[in-house]
Specification:
This protein is an all-alpha fold and 520 residues long. It has four domains: 198 residues, MFS general substrate transporter like domains (Growth Hormone, Chain: A, Up-down Bundle), CATH 1.20.1250; 57 residues; 196 residues, Growth Hormone, Chain: A; 44 residues, no CATH class. The protein is 77% helix and 0% strand.
């Protein structure tokens, strides 16, 4: 991801209204991009139902975007040198608009997943380039202000995503969660071109590591397919899953060897020699995977087993950004003075608390009981990104910060996609186990069962309807218990991640702190 260090210095900062409109246009493009990572979460049941697939298959709508986006991020540096910052940014925004339109038109799940992957891929350069162009618009002394305004957008968008997605799904129809990108994107592209087309960066022909890129696509794609289709195909009892696992492992091995020996690697793996980089990147990736997996499960559980509408599920998810918006500027201003490892530790403790609270939910939990942990989670988010990026990028020379930020973001986005697949698979497996255990206690000889059946019979239910009703209650309980298991395990994993943060050295560099102010 492009950062403060990568800001172009060839042009003077913008002045007056041009700077204001430039900031609005670049922030709008970022907002649209980040919004699309969360807007589909609460709409998954509606999309799955409309296109006739299971909710597990529906999660591909999220993972296909994330995996394609992760693959595109490391290419941003090469594409920028080849085509120029402004032209590449414009192409990214316009192609994002077209792919969003195609997502809305998708007639079946296979087509929607393909268009979401396209959308994720073309979105890759948009966020790093919006940072770079924004930094070039402000004087060096105001770079912190520019990044604070930019990072606000990345915090507001995940808040708006579930709310907007839920409202649109309930009141219009799910394709409009993609169509709303069209006016926003056209506005952002029009203003950006008007202001920045005369501020294009220089271009030069640089070699592309084609084999490294092909191997990257191969192993990441195979791994994600294995995780997504594993539940459906009964995991390693399926020759298809075994084949994908072998391709992922062999592809990854070849990728490592190639990238460590190539002169122009698509991913600079030598960064992993630095303790702060690998400990920070690992903690960020695993924590983000845990966070994102739980963010997907909660609205699915609420809508499928608690009777919530998409709008209500969105309202439960939305407050996560409230405290994040309040605390993020404070973290950004103080991360240079306070050990970022302390901030990251605090973040993980709060995440663990939130997930422990959720692990105590039951089917009688009301709206406010479910919402309180979401509000608290905003504190954890504020103390999560900036300190961890500061740790990851600390001690690096300015010329390596862009590559390091790109690689850590690749790891984070890939982990988010994997977290979604793993969390939904574990959730369904645990639900099946709980269902089997609960059914054992539901028998004709049980007094609770007999009284429930007698009550339903008195209300005029037939035998088939009574059994169906009992099965629905068992389903509701088993999926709630399974969600509790996932939340509890995630809380424990957040606590186990804390030592990785403290493996890093307590060094801080101004460059890393500046970069962290806008990294997301």
């Amino acid at each position: 991801m492009a950062t403060a260090a990568a800001a172009p210095a060839a042009y003077p900062p913008l002045e007056g209204s041009a700077r204001v409109w430039g900031t609005i246009a670049l922030s709008a493009a970022t907002f649209m991009n980040v919004l699309d990572t969360s807007i589909a979460n609460v709409s998954l049941p509606a999309i799955s139902g409309d296109l006739g697939v299971s909710s597990t298959q529906g999660t591909w709508v999220i993972t296909s975007f994330a995996v394609a986006n992760a693959i595109a991020v490391p290419l941003t540096g090469w594409l920028t040198q080849r085509f120029g910052q402004v032209r590449l940014f414009m192409a990214s925004v316009l192609l994002f608009i077209i792919s969003s339109w195609l997502c809305g038109l998708a007639p079946n799940m296979t087509t929607l997943i393909a268009f979401r992957a396209l959308q994720g891929f073309v979105a890759g350069p948009m966020i790093p380039l919006s940072q770079t162009l924004l930094l070039s618009s402000y004087p060096r002394a105001k770079a912190g202000l520019a990044m604070a305004m930019w990072s606000m957008t990345t915090l507001v968008a995940p808040v708006m995503g579930p709310l907007l997605g839920g409202w649109i799904t309930d009141n219009i129809s799910w394709p409009w969660i993609f169509y709303i990108n069209i006016p926003v994107g056209l506005l952002a592209a029009g203003i950006t071109w008007g202001i920045y087309h005369k501020r294009e960066s220089g271009t030069r022909k640089v070699p592309i590591d084609g084999i490294g890129l092909a191997l990257l696509v191969l192993w990441v794609g195979s791994l994600q397919l294995m995780l997504d289709k594993g539940k459906e195909l009964d995991w390693f009892h399926s020759p298809e899953i075994i084949a994908m696992a072998i391709i992922a492992v062999v592809g990854f091995a070849f990728f490592l060897v190639w990238e460590l020996t190539d002169k122009h690697p698509v991913v600079d793996l030598s960064l992993f020699k630095r303790r702060n980089f690998w400990s920070g990147a690992l903690a960020t990736a695993v924590a983000y995977g845990l966070f994102f997996g739980n963010v997907v499960i909660l609205p699915l559980w609420l809508q499928q087993y608690m009777g919530y509408t998409a709008t209500q599920a969105g309202m439960i998810m939305a407050p996560v950004g409230l405290l994040a918006i309040i605390f993020s500027p404070i973290v950004g201003l103080t991360v240079g003075k306070i050990d970022p490892r302390r901030y990251a530790t605090f973040s993980f403790l709060v995440f663990a608390l939130v997930l422990w609270m959720r692990s105590n939910f039951n089917t009688q939990a009301d709206f406010w009981t479910i919402m309180i942990p979401t509000v608290i989670q905003g504190v954890a988010m504020a103390f999560f990104f900036i300190p961890l990026v500061t740790i990851t990028l600390s001690g690096l020379t300015p010329d390596r910060i862009a590559a390091a930020s790109g690689l850590s973001n690749f790891a984070r986005i890939t982990a988010g996609a994997m977290g979604t697949s793993i969390a939904t698979t574990v959730w369904e497996n645990r639900a099946a186990l709980h269902h089997a255990q609960l059914v054992e206690s539901v028998s004709q000889g049980s007094s609770a069962t007999s009284s429930a059946m007698a009550g339903l019979a008195a209300n005029g239910f037939s035998t088939e309807q009574i059994l169906g009703q009992l099965n629905r209650l068992v389903d509701q309980q088993s999926f709630m218990l399974a969600a509790n298991d996932v939340f509890y395990a995630s809380a424990v994993l957040f606590l186990l991640l804390i030592p990785f943060v403290w493996l890093s050295k307590p060094t801080r560099s101004p460059g890393a702190a500046d970069a962290a102010a806008g990294a997301h």
